[in-house]
């Protein structure tokens, strides 16, 4: 049946191109929307994911960074540092504020770094230095390019002017960017002496971050301790909860439009081959054989269209990443599984719908025409 279906499909190359192209473009819409949302979700936690920490320690009740405030005394750092299994500790200051360049105001996570931080600083420096000193700042390269600031330029952070001494890559999203200043400047401007916002912890080799996080929370009072993975999950969840209605509606509309176009394409392509099915009936093919041929042709069309959709989506992802945009397209395995499963179901239904017309075909009509 598969061989017969494939031969029937490739008999008319133009009709095959339209059929596969229609399915491919429909699936491209679904896959690209999913890739955009997955990319945005991933870039929201870009600092957490690239902090190189295994555990985040915050003030009691604070489980994320976005629109959250955490303040811990320096005594917490000393207590965490002596917990067995802790390899290294880096305290950071954090505040969500603006990087002001001329008339441009760019929302950013402002990170205050101590002297010689072991981790928690910028992870991909494209120009300049990787650690800011007093009166210095490291900002995202996309922000710098969009506003025209260069190394040695002046930006305003927390109401104070800073010299740009470094440009970092992969530190921006559609929502905000990440900027780094020294912890000393942060303390002076924010008045947070002898306190810090978060404690970044590295565990010893062979230690379990989950087990050590539970141990720290049991030993140190008034703190919330999470693994980096859990902390990033909470961060994504907060942002998703804030925009869940908009994202869900947009994704659902795109998904339904894509499935509708694909269903119409498969349905039309099936009906357009009624003459071939009439010939098969005239040659003695039973309805059961015809049904299997119809389903096989629909599935082959969807598989080819799925391959086209994935290929174009991956190409778009590569092109967008080279354009220097804050947006990133990320094709996830979960998205491929979801789109592939629904595509097979919808294509099967779309092919089955005209089967009654095919089953009722009179072979003599084909020859009379």
Account of the 3D structure:
The two termini are 26 Å apart. The longest helix is centred in the last third of the chain and has 44 residues, at 228-271. The protein contains 13 helices and twelve strands. The chain folds into two domains: 2-44 and 243-368, no CATH class; 61-221, no CATH class. The strands form two sheets. Strands 3-4-9-6-8-7 form a six-stranded mixed β-barrel. Strands 2-10 form a two-stranded antiparallel sheet. By secondary structure, the protein is of the alpha+beta class. The mean pLDDT is 81. The radius of gyration is 29 Å and the shape is elongated.
Secondary structure topology:
Blueprint: H1 2-9, H2 13-44, H3 46-49, E1 55-59, E2 72-73, H4 74-81, E3 86-101, E4 104-113, E5 125-128, E6 136-140, H5 141-147, E7 154-157, E8 160-168, E9 177-182, H6 183-190, E10 195-196, E11 198-203, H7 209-219, E12 223-227, H8 228-271, H9 274-282, H10 287-322, H11 333-352, H12 355-359, H13 363-368
Parallel strand pairs: 4-9, 6-8
Antiparallel strand pairs: 1-11, 1-12, 2-10, 3-4, 3-7, 3-11, 5-8, 6-9, 7-8
Helix pairs in contact: 1-10, 2-8, 2-10, 2-11, 8-10, 8-11, 10-11
Keyword list:
369 residues; alpha+beta; 2 domains; 6-stranded mixed beta barrel; 12 strands; 54% helix
